[in-house]
Amino acid sequence: MADDQTKEQTEDQAKAQQVIRVNDSLEYVYRDIFNIYVSQEEVLLEFGNKIRPKDNEIVLGNRIVLSIPNAIKLQNALAGTISKVQKQLQEKMIERNAANQN
Description:
The chain has a single domain, classed as Roll (Nuclear Transport Factor 2, Chain: A), CATH 3.10.450. It has 2 helices and 3 strands. It has helices at 2-17, 68-101; strands at residues 33-38, 42-50, 58-67. A 3-stranded antiparallel sheet has the order 1-2-3. The longest helix is centred in the last third of the chain and has 34 residues, at 68-101. The radius of gyration is 20 Å and the shape is extended. The model has no long low-confidence stretch (mean pLDDT 87).
């Protein structure tokens, strides 16, 4: 148990020391389709878009390869973030319903 806490503290310290640089040509894109392929060594993510009005055609625009440990980190980060957003949305809906009943 203490080893787990020490490992988490070390990882937190490493994250605090990281410098993140954003490339000037960073692309912001919307994707509405994804595929996931998993092997023993890596996870391959493909992102694309449906072509409108032909919903049976898809154009892939990005292919990202992650190591298994990084894919697990991504999974955990997404799960935590989405859970927080869902909770906030539920709280707002409850507040709106209460306001509408008054």
